[in-house]
């Protein structure tokens, strides 16, 4: 009964960014409500408790609709252009809510099926029609409210642009102070509106772009103040004018990007062509290669060859870079050559398997697939190492900000020659940092981090020349306090971006090491002993190279299973579904165990591995089993036993894993046996998960289709 109440409150506070997403979101909520209301048709006996529950559902729906409509009507009164449309939608929603309340008013009736009083039991289609009307009208209200929010943001942007034009043209300090005060208020309003919108966005890529644009506007507001004051103080100074123009230009671009994100459009209808990173290219390539296990005919060898060529072209960004070490360059070139050879071998076996599907050929194909994927993983690891080691070295080298300090000192001294010398050094530093951002983008691992890398690159590209023009202005006017303050502001922006790069580098490394999302608390490894007193007495045991080699094959199988699980979860339309969430979490943790078999990642010792398996992975599996039980209540009676059987299987496997992880192990041999058992049982759970996800997805679609047909 809480679903609809939450929906209504959510609709008031959090407006989504497209009509399609409204409909999907609301429809899911209504399906739950309708299920609750009409599922009783197959139950011959209805207790007082059941009747009261049905009545409470109807009352909750009506109450939530009433609150929602009140807000909708208030919005309509404030926006005359959409008032009529909004009012009609609100009236329809209120009428539907009242109808549902009337049809579910059954708790006080001795005979709810009585013809004298129309209820859900005598008019089963009536509540469905009312719910359908409610779905339609609430969606319409949300869409209209969304249009109003977009309109508010555009109007706010236009105000900011108009005031910026006035600021560019002012010629006196008094006029500037007055207009800038107005500009500050308008920027605060714009920041609030876009901040709310950013929180509402479901697309992580758009959210990252919005965050980048808002960060530019926030930093540029202070730059605009000091740059404009400097230009007013020194109106004939060319470098001061260039400095100011750069700030205004960057703010306009950021404002335009915000509107593009909000309206989901681009100027002149052009499509956004984001550059493909090596990571995303390798991921897509591996998915295609691994897809050959299921279907030998779903793509051509030319497609695979083209995909590899594109990836290897991108590796030239590393091999052609003056900042890539000789060792990394040689390894990347060797792996690129090996990747071509592995693909040639794969294509050869693949073509033979298409003509003759023998057991030997299929085994050869499996080996070729594994070798090709392994080679691509090695290439990914090598470019990651090249990018992150360069970034770490550069950030460490530039931590002292010596060039910026020198520019401030020589600027105050009015030493134009020294300023020119240090501006050249800053330009070199800028080129290094820009190159660093480009290489990091290739290995960032996620789209939001890619966007952050692109934003950082733009920041260094723009801020570098602005620091130079500010330093030149100060050198020409060494006694100017405002010119000195202006240089300080731009230098602080540079230092802030360098600091942000350290955080970005840490996030990129976290993704690479298997921490696929900082929001998932269970991926943070607890200290041994925190949840289990027995852990304190155990000393961590590291496996030697030979023992790691023995479990490498098992680890590779685990890695392939995580890829399969990730592929299955990506097919779900509702990424917020509880089953998907638990599946993704288990995949992330299994991936950490795979990295352990390679001597990499967050799990450094065997004790870390045992804790991950017992306390975290198995617990997550048990939660998934509970979600499967909940789903079984919604599916058809014929399909329920199968789902419950799979859930019990999962619970049993998780218990076996916990027992294996808890077992005492003294000595290296016993410890290795325990490690092997934990990874083997984790692999078994992941194998079952690969079967469960498509089954659950299919069953949920059936449930939704049946309810929609009923409506």
TrEMBL record:
Which UniProt key words apply to this protein? Cytoplasm
> Could you state a single Gene Ontology molecular function term?
actin filament binding
UniProt-listed Pfam families: Vinculin
Instruction: Give the GO terms filed under biological process for this record.
Output: cell adhesion; Rho protein signal transduction
A GO cellular component term found in this entry reads: cytoplasm
Q: Where in the cell is it found?
A: Cytoplasm
| Record-linked SUPFAM superfamilies | alpha-catenin/vinculin-like (SSF47220)
Highest taxon of the lineage: Eukaryota
Q: Can you tell me which family this protein belongs to?
A: Belongs to the vinculin/alpha-catenin family.
| Name the UniProt record assigns to this protein | Alpha-catulin
């Amino acid at each position: 009964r809480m679903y609809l109440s939450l929906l209504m409150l959510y609709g008031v506070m959090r407006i989504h960014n497209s009509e399609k997403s409204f409909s999907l979101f609301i429809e899911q909520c209504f399906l739950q409500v309708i299920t609750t209301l009409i599922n009783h048709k197959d139950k011959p006996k209805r207790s007082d408790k059941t009747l009261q529950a049905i009545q409470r559902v109807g009352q909750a729906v009506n109450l939530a609709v009433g609150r929602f409509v009140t807000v909708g009507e208030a919005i309509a009164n404030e926006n005359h252009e959409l008032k009529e449309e909004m009012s009609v939608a609100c009236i329809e929603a209120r009428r539907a809510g009242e109808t549902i309340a009337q049809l579910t008013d059954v708790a006080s009736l001795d005979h709810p099926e009585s013809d004298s009083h129309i209820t859900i039991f005598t008019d089963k289609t009536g509540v469905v029609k009312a719910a359908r009307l409610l779905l339609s009208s609430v969606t319409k209200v949300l869409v209209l409210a969304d249009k109003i929010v977009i309109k508010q943001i555009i109007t706010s942007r236009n105000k900011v642009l108009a005031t910026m034009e006035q600021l560019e043209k002012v010629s006196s300090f008094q006029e500037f102070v007055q207009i800038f005060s107005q500009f500050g208020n308008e920027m605060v309003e714009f920041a609030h509106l876009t901040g709310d919108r950013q929180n509402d966005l479901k697309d992580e890529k758009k959210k990252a772009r919005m965050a980048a644009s808002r960060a530019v506007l926030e930093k540029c507001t202070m730059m605009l103040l000091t740059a404009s004051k400097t230009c007013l103080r020194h109106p004939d100074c060319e470098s001061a004018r260039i400095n100011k123009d750069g700030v205004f230009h960057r703010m306009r671009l950021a404002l335009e990007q915000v509107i593009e994100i909000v309206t989901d459009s681009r100027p002149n209808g052009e499509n956004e062509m984001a550059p493909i990173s090596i990571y995303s290219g390798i991921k897509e390539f591996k998915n295609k290669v691994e897809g050959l296990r299921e279907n030998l005919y779903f793509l051509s060898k030319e497609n695979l060859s083209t995909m590899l060529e594109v990836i290897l072209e991108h590796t030239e960004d590393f091999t052609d870079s003056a900042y890539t070490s000789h060792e990394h360059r040689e390894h990347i070139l060797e792996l690129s050559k090996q990747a071509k050879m592995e693909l040639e071998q794969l294509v050869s076996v693949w073509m033979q398997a298409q003509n003759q599907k023998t057991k030997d050929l299929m085994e050869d194909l499996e080996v070729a697939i594994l070798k090709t994927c392994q080679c691509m993983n090695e290439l990914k690891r090598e470019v990651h190492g090249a990018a992150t080691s360069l970034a770490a070295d550069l950030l460490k080298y530039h931590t002292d900000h010596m060039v910026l300090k020198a520019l401030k000192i020589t600027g105050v001294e009015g030493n134009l020659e020294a300023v020119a010398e240090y501006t050249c050094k800053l330009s070199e530093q800028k080129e290094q940092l820009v190159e660093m951002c480009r290489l990091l983008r290739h290995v960032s691992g996620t789209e939001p981090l890619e966007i952050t890398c692109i934003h950082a690159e733009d920041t260094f590209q723009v801020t570098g020349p602005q620091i130079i023009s500010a330093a030149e202005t100060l050198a020409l006017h060494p006694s100017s306090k405002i010119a000195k303050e202006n240089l300080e502001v731009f230098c602080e922006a540079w230092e802030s971006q360098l600091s942000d790069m350290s955080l970005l580098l840490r996030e990129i490394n976290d993704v690479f090491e298997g921490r696929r999302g900082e929001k998932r608390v269970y991926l943070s490894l607890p200290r041994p002993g925190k949840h289990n007193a027995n852990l304190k007495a155990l000393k961590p045991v590291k496996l030697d190279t030979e023992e790691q080699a023995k479990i490498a094959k098992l680890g590779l199988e685990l890695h392939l299973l995580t890829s399969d699980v990730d592929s299955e979860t990506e097919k779900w339309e509702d990424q917020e579904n509880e089953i998907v969430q638990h599946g993704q979490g288990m995949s992330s943790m299994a991936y950490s165990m795979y990295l352990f078999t390679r001597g990499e990642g967050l799990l450094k010792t065997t004790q870390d591995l045992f804790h991950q398996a017992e306390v975290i992975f198995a617990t997550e599996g048990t939660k998934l089993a509970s979600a499967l039980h909940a789903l079984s209540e919604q599916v058809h009676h014929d399909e329920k036993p199968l789902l419950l059987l799979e859930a019990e299987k999962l619970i049993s496997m998780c218990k076996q894993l916990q027992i294996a992880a808890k077992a005492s192990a003294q000595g290296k041999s016993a410890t290795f046996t325990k490690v092997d058992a934990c990874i083997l049982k984790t692999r078994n759970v992941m194998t079952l998960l690969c079967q469960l996800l498509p089954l659950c997805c299919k069953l949920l679609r059936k449930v939704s289709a049946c309810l929609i047909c009923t409506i």
